[in-house]
Amino acid sequence: MSWTARSIPDQSGRTAVVTGANSGIGYVTARELARRGARVVLACRSEQRGALALDRLMSQVPEARAELRLLDLADLLSVRDFARTLPCERLDLLINNAGLMAVPYARTADGFEMQFGVNHLGHFALTGLLLERLLAAPGARVVTVASMAHVLSNIDMSDLGSERRYRPMAAYGASKTANLLFVRELAHRADNKGLDLTSTAAHPGYARTELQTKGPRLAGQPRRERITKLVTDAVGASADQGAAPVLYAATAPYVQSDSFYGPRILAVRGGPGSAWRAPWARNDIAAGQLWAASERLTGVTYRGL
């Protein structure tokens, strides 16, 4: 029998932060962790959408201990404010889920290309700022939601902001490669220090969420948006199915650091299992270089690592 959300062990006494928890994979992840007893913080950019998600979660899981806190990963000041005001002394789970896919060229508040800035740098900074609280929790895990789209593009250390040439889907693929290199370097650094911290990654396959249609909508391409929605509705898995690998990485026993999980069947559907990574997403030299660049760009240094 495939692993499902019903397989999640009891999460009572644990605290989880889920970024982008207002919809899709993030919402399902937050809901199921709350259903199993975790205290869940929904970290969302939009107060209105976050509040609607929280109301929905409480209606589906009346006994849930859940709260909304605002977090804009496209603004490092917001990331720092979120980490500074988070009211917990220890954090058991950090789910780096929020992301953008194939959007028109734009810059974050700090001047970074938007997809690299949100998908990688925002989460890099958030994890570093919450590291002390993660290390205070025995067996803490950081789960970063990547994508099989990482096979489309390696990162270019000489052009992390896609200044020379911007192609939306290639930039998305590069940001997902960055996610996997971050997971690898964090795992290695924690292991080298003998720290009780698991850094792992997961991808949802092809799920029916708003991620696919947001790019065409922002680009003002209604025809492409309609076609994308039709294809997604026809072949995509449900958000519940897409969240299964994320929940597995977050809660299943014996999950190892520097692992990557996704749907078993053609990396699109089915229960969670080990996922394949392109060689460039397993490059230790690139992982170290990206880490150093990320510290420099965000100003966040991982103390103790």
From TrEMBL:
A Pfam family hit: adh_short
Entry keyword set: Oxidoreductase
PANTHER family in UniProt: PHOSPHATIDYLINOSITOL-GLYCAN BIOSYNTHESIS CLASS F PROTEIN (PTHR43157:SF31), PHOSPHATIDYLINOSITOL-GLYCAN BIOSYNTHESIS CLASS F PROTEIN-RELATED (PTHR43157)
Family designation: Belongs to the short-chain dehydrogenases/reductases (SDR) family.
Identification of the protein by name: Oxidoreductase
Range of residues in the leader sequence: none
Record-linked InterPro entries: NAD(P)-bd_dom_sf, SDR_fam
